[in-house]
Structure formats: C-alpha cells, structure tokens
Amino acid sequence: MSKPTTSSAAAAPAPAPTLILSQLDGRVGTLTIAHEDKLNCLSHALMDQLMAGLDTLVRDGANVIVLRANKGVKVWSAGHDINELPEPRRDPLSYGDPLETLLRHVQDCPVPVIAMVEGTVWGGACDLCCSCDMVVATDGSTFAMTPAKIGIPYNASGLIHFVHHIGLNKAKEMFFTARPTTVTEAWNNGFVNHHVPAEDLERFTYDLAGRIARNAPLAVRAIKAQFRLLTRGALIDAETAERIQAIRRQVYDSADYAEGIKAFKEKRPPVFTGK
Ligand code: YXS
Questions:
Q1: Is pTM beyond 0.85 here?
Q2: Residues flanking ligand 1, CB < 6 Å
C-alpha cells in the first residue's frame, strides 16, 4: 500500500508577534509599546505596528492618542534596535528608513499624540517623544540622545526637532555628551510639558487627553496641521542640504561607525580612532 503523501504546502508563516496594543475609549485612543523583553526597542516590526495603530485609531474616531509603555517599565524604549541598523557604509537614518518614516507619521497624524513616559528613553525613542505633540513624564524619567556614543551622525530633521524643543545649546549638550537628561532638566528645557509623580501619571495624562478630545476636532486638527507646517525646520538652500549629506556620509562611511555598532553587540566600550 502506498505511503500517505504529506502535504508539500509550505507551513503558513507564524503570525508576527503583537508588539503594540491598541485601545479606544470614546474619543481617546491609546497605543502601548509592549515588547519589554527587548526593552521596547524600535524594531522595524514594532515601528510598522505603531504606524498602523495610529491610522486605525484615527479611522475609528480618536480625537487624541496617548502613546505609552506598560505601567512600571524601567525602560520606556531603548531606541532604535541596534541590531537592525544598516551595515556600515549606509546611511542609518535616511529619509525612507523606518525610524524617519515613523517620526514623520507621528508628526503628520491628524490628531494630537501625547507621549506618556516613565523610565528611561534612549536615542530614536527620544526623537519619537519629540515628534509627539506633548510629553507627560514621571519624576524619575530620563532622556538620552546617544548617536555620538555609537558613532552615528544623526540627521538634519532630527537635530532641528531638538533645537526647536530645547534650544541650540542644550540640544548640543544632549547630543555631544549622550548623557541622560533628568526630567527636571527636560521640563526646564521645554522637552516635557509636565512631570508628575508616577502614581499620578495615568490620571494626569488622561485628564489632559480628555480635555483635548472634548474640543472641536476639526479645529484641533487644523491647528495641529498648521503647527506642523510652521515648524518644518529651518529653510536651507540646495547646496547646504548637499553639504549636510556630505558631512554625514563621512561618518557612516567611517571605521568608527562600524566600531560603535560592533562594540555594542560585543558588550564592550567602543574604541573610536576618529577614522
Ligand atoms: O544581551 P542581550 O541579548 O540580552 O541584549 C541586551 C542588549 O543588547 C539589548 N538592547 C538592545 N538591543 C538592540 N537595540 C538596542 N537599542 C538595545 N538596548 C538594549 O537588550 C538586552 C538587555 O540590555 P542591557 O543588558 O544593556 O540592559 P540594562 O538594563 O543593563 O541597560 C538598559 C539600557 C537601555 C541602559 C542599555 O541596554 C542601553 O544603554 N541600551 C542602548 C540604548 C541606546 O543607546 N539606544 C540608541 C539606539 S540607536 C538609536 O536609537 C538611533 C539610531 S541614534 O543612535 O541615532 O539615536
């Protein structure tokens, strides 16, 4: 008797893990970053789910969206997933890269997005907070911009975000030192709208969100759209834009950029040579 044939159909691919939880209460939406075992790193999959989550909540009638992590996290987000940074010699933050696409998606989201922060925030996740319309953080939160620690030249639109939010000198200090900024400094810098005790974070944030959700949605959307257009960064001519790209290319073509990523993966301090 012939042996039963096994189906040659390839096994269906496992469904992608859910990294972003979504909830809509009335007109207030919530997106929760839920990938703690990877310190809520901004992986491509997580960023795709975040963008889709924004679109779905807006489609379903949200007038405001709260972006948060699970209650009690030590690390709100460890920033871009370093394992997904492109291999050296390729711009890690070009216009079409997932992180830059996400940041524009948040800024272009028709309704206000409030970052509700507790714990530590790193690298691209700081820029994600910057791209939100408001930030409410607990008293113990910190924000660190670490590209210089890894050997990344950052990028023009990102640097402009920080200059707009905290001023030129404090933006320079944040980037040059890569030091975590305390929430009190961040509040004084204008980086966060409010800092509150951890036990008050949810109540305070959702009171703020509720107040926005009850206002005229078309007016709020039109005002957000105008803010977006009016703060698109400094006007620069074509030659300046090309010069910025040339400056950045020298960095991500460098041995230091490769060394920064390699050192992180090997869990050792980087040895930068300036080459
Ligand atoms: O050893 P395992 O496999 O468990 O993995 C470790 C870390 O390698 C991993 N991990 C990350 N993996 C990918 N991308 C990351 N950003 C990342 N951060 C951490 O998570 C596991 C636990 O990490 P560990 O042992 O260091 O935990 P910890 O509690 O001692 O320290 C938590 C942090 C967040 C202080 C520490 O992990 C850290 O400093 N992470 C790097 C934060 C950072 O510099 N992020 C910026 C990424 S680059 C980026 O966002 C932009 C491109 S830019 O640089 O331009 O801003």
A1: yes
A2: 39, 41, 75, 78-83, 92, 122-124, 145-147, 150, 152, 154
